[in-house]
Write a structure and sequence with these properties.
The protein is built from seven helices and three strands, in the order ααβααββααα. It has 174 residues and is mainly alpha-helical. The chain has a domain of 101 residues: Orthogonal Bundle (Arc Repressor Mutant, subunit A). A hairpin with a 7-residue loop joins strand 2 and strand 3. Helix 1 packs across helix 2. The longest helix is centred in the N-terminal third of the chain and has 30 residues. It is globular, with a radius of gyration of 20 Å. It comes from Bradyrhizobium septentrionale. One of its GO terms (biological process) is response to stress.
Amino acid sequence: MSSAKSRGALLQELEEALRRSSAQGVLYGQTVANVAGISGSDLECIDIVLLEGRVTAGRLAEVTGLTTGAITGVVDRLEKAGYVRRERDESDRRKVFISVVPEAVEKIGQYYVPLQQAMQKVFSGYSEDELRLLLRFTNDGYKGVLGATGALKVVIDTPPEQRANLKMSPKSRR
């Protein structure tokens, strides 16, 4: 028998490592959100707006999987806290964009410096080819999570009394 791990064992180990990393990332973000005085999901919405530049409420709902009504609540809270602002489109005054307030978001960003420094140290141990592989893996993983989120949205959109009839793989549950 080979001392090398089987593909199945490696995949299991990788899944567990990703779950640990994901959980720790969520907990780190929640800690930052607590310090900032907002919810963890509101903090993630700020990050999405940062990554996309500026977004409409519809786009934010699409990316997060939240309803437009829920997004209105998120934006109201974040605007009241001073983290985002609504901006009317110059060419179509009916269209409203959500953008971050840079000075306010910079204050939140300071709490991510230790994490960024830790990750830079980790990344320094990889070659450019390995970094390209990690980037491909991360981007592909993101697409996978988007697909899984879409599939889960079907469950959410199904009345509770009909959810038992939906087929989900037991391996997809934690």
